Amino acid sequence: MAERFGYISRVQSFSACHRLHSVHLSDEENRSVYGKCNNPNGHGHNYKGESSSSTHPRIDPLTGMVMNLTDLKRCIEEVIMDPLDHKNLDRDVPYFSKVVSTTENVAVYIWDHMVKVLPPNVLYEIKIHETDKNIVMYRGE
């Protein structure tokens, strides 16, 4: 029987607040770059994160799975839900004390932590829906 390859994804919603503000810019530059998202009191999102399996995952002929979705769910709980859900990203997540909490950087954060808890070469893409219209994709490049 020929090897079969496939992709799996799991979508998880999480809520968090943040303020887009760079310590490398003046207050005026921050207001100019980030506009209303630089509000000193921050603002929130109901994010939707999608974790997808790797570029050439083999479908196991015995289980019929690329990987067990229960294992992927456990990894998402550990990497996304526990540290990010209902948190102030800038204050509650040490990573963002020095990194601007843009959705792009949230995707990088998730990628960097997911690759540590998933089997090697399994993670393909992290996709974050900040809003219905704003979506970021990151593939570890």
Structural topology:
Blueprint lengths: L8 E10 L8 H8 L8 E11 L15 H16 L2 E2 H4 L10 H15 L5 E7 L5 E4 L3
Parallel strand pairs: 1-3
Antiparallel strand pairs: 1-2, 2-4, 4-5
Helix pairs in contact: 2-4
Pick out its properties.
141 residues, alpha+beta, Tetrahydropterin Synthase, Chain A, 5 strands, 6-PTP_synth/QueD_sf
Description:
Keywords: Lyase, Metal-binding, Tetrahydrobiopterin biosynthesis, Zinc. β4 and β5 form a beta hairpin. This protein has one domain (9-138): Tetrahydropterin Synthase, Chain A (2-Layer Sandwich). Strands 3-1-2-4-5 form a five-stranded mixed sheet. The longest helix is centred in the middle third of the chain and has 16 residues, at 69-84. The radius of gyration is 17 Å and the shape is elongated. The chain starts with 8 loop residues before the first strand and ends with a strand. 30% of the residues lie in helices and 24% in strands. With 141 residues, it is of the alpha+beta class.
